[in-house]
Write a structure and sequence with these properties.
Largest sheet: 8 strands, mixed
Oligomer: single chain
Number of helices: 11
Strand content: 25-35%
Structural class: alpha/beta
Number of strands: 17
Bound molecules: ligand PMT
Distance between the termini: 47 Å
Order of helices and strands: HEHHEHHEEEHEEEHEEHEEEHEHEEEH
């Protein structure tokens, strides 16, 4: 009990499936579980287990129970496992765990803020089996959602078709087309403080979607495309607009074109990235330059998680100026 009172914060790393289950059940039959049950200190767990054990419905239900009680999860990371499997369940690197603890000292940058993030591509259907899409994996947007949550925000994540795990704590809505993303974002931004548009939204969609698979009976075929709504533009035009952050994906004249988009779409801030072969899309790293009306910050080249943390820090710094 003395140990439980003494702690200002409790971290269990590595946290096995067993300890997660025992905490969820409120068991207190050894020193660790007794300390956790008897302490009012914030509890953090860094799971480490076989990927199948992590995915098991029992572990997921136990994790959800703890999460609902306010226990914070650091990870798990995904990748090669000691047993030879590949998947989620790896312990975060110690340096990442320490960084997460340091970030939790004192008030967080987005405590009490509501943030909406769009991520991933949109798919525009041509017929029941074909669509127009792009190479976005959703990783940049998902990293931003996770970074905002780590800074205390409540996050709505509107995701195009991606195969990524939901950042713990995010409220996720899955969509397919630009029109669906538009509708989901518009519903989520009412009353939000910040909208971050990291999705690679298709500018055009086929005028009509064929109800049956199109046959190859002519040498050529033409598709008529019509404009999709511009989501970030429509958010910025709202009377109750939040702080609006766009991205600019450019192959050349990156900063110049990003600055033009900042003005044309009436954004508060834009993150410019060079795209194309070996850049930005569907990879874990990126390079971002942030631009706003009278400022610029080069975030350099780094892992998307690191860039996301820096982007959130910049947004938190700019926010009061626009909300005053
Ligand atoms: O998903 P990843 O693989 O991690 O890749 C990340 C990324 C390259 C997709 C991301 O960093 C990025 O650049 N996202 C924006 C892509 C894009 O559509 O850029 P754009 O320059 O075409 O559009 C400008 C802004 O308008 C963007 O904020 C975009 O979300 C928004 N937009 C565009 C078209 C449209 N119809 N509606 C929009 O809201």
């Amino acid at each position: 009990i003395e140990l439980a009172r003494w702690a200002t914060r409790i971290l269990i790393a590595p946290a096995s499936a067993d300890i997660i289950a025992r905490l969820a059940a409120g068991i207190a039959d050894d020193l660790l579980t007794t300390v956790c049950l008897a302490s009012a200190a914030p509890l953090l767990v860094a799971p480490a287990m076989n990927q199948q054990m992590w995915k098991h419905a029992a572990t997921q239900a136990n994790a959800a129970t703890l999460y609902a009680r306010g226990v914070e999860f650091l990870g798990p990371a995904s990748g090669d496992q000691a047993c030879g499997d590949i998947g989620p369940g790896r312990l975060l690197e110690p340096i990442e765990i320490i960084a997460a603890l340091v970030a939790r000292q004192g008030p967080r940058l987005l405590d009490g803020k509501r943030v909406v993030v769009s991520a991933g591509p949109t798919f525009e259907d041509i017929d029941p089996v074909r669509y127009i899409g792009n190479r976005s994996s959703g990783r940049m947007g998902f990293a931003i959602a996770a970074a905002a949550i780590a800074q205390g925000a409540m996050v709505d994540l509107v995701a195009g078709p991606v195969s990524l795990d939901t950042p713990r704590g995010a409220r996720r809505v899955d969509v397919r087309s630009a029109q669906q993303m538009h509708d989901a974002v518009m519903a989520a931004v009412a009353g939000a403080d910040i909208f971050i548009s990291a999705a690679a939204v298709a500018d055009y969609r086929p005028e009509t979607m064929a109800s049956a698979k199109i046959k190859k009976d002519s040498a050529e075929m033409a598709l008529t495309l019509v404009r999709n709504p511009d989501i970030v533009n429509d958010v910025a035009a709202r009377a109750d607009r939040p702080f609006v952050v766009g991205f600019a994906a450019e192959t050349d004249e990156v900063e110049q074109r990003a600055r033009a988009k900042l003005a044309a779409k009436k954004l508060d801030l834009i993150a410019a990235n060079r795209v194309g072969a070996e850049h930005a899309f569907d990879r874990s790293d990126n390079a971002l330059v942030l631009l706003w009306a009278d400022g610029r910050e080069d975030l350099g080249h780094a892992d998307k998680n690191v860039l996301a943390e820096k982007l959130i820090a910049r947004i938190a710094q700019q926010l009061p100026a626009t909300r005053a």
